[in-house]
């Protein structure tokens, strides 16, 4: 669910409980003050958590979300609540990462979006998951996501 303008925001500036499930989380949006301008917005969540759907044990990831806004920006508090809703949600790494990317793309309708999910090892194997809505636009300056291959991430 989204809002069409900043005056309809329901979470910003109010006490808002963490949603119990990502499907129940409300992603809110605000108008892009520079529509038609090619620029990247980046969100980094270095302490993302979810639960293994088999064992119920916690899984940890460093998420990097880059997007080129169209008409909308994601409101950051709603994004934090959305990401936090995974804390008690059981899903595999691939499902969490791709779901986040697809949900943001559906709500924001960005020019382009990518997400890198850099998951900490479970069973000795780190799993990195990447999703993009397509190739990056021509002429876009796109920095590296800055997360090195696993060596005790930090």
UniProtKB/TrEMBL annotation:
Catalytic site: 52, 59
Stored InterPro entries: GTP-CH-I_C/QueF (IPR043133), NADPH_dep_7-cyano-7-deazaG_red (IPR050084), QueF (IPR029500), QueF_type1 (IPR016856)
Assigned EC number: 1.7.1.13
Pathway assigned to this chain's UniProt record: tRNA modification; tRNA-queuosine biosynthesis
GO molecular function (one): preQ1 synthase activity
Biased composition (Polar residues): 1-14
Entry keyword Cytoplasm: yes
Entry keyword annotation includes Heme: no
EC top class, as a word: oxidoreductase
Keywords, in A-Z order: Cytoplasm, NADP, Oxidoreductase, Queuosine biosynthesis
Record's catalysed reaction(s): 7-aminomethyl-7-carbaguanine + 2 NADP(+) = 7-cyano-7-carbaguanine + 2 NADPH + 3 H(+)
Subcellular location, record wording: Cytoplasm
Pfam families found in the cross-reference section: QueF
SUPFAM superfamilies: Tetrahydrobiopterin biosynthesis enzymes-like
UniProt similarity note: Belongs to the GTP cyclohydrolase I family. QueF type 1 subfamily.
Name of the protein in question: NADPH-dependent 7-cyano-7-deazaguanine reductase
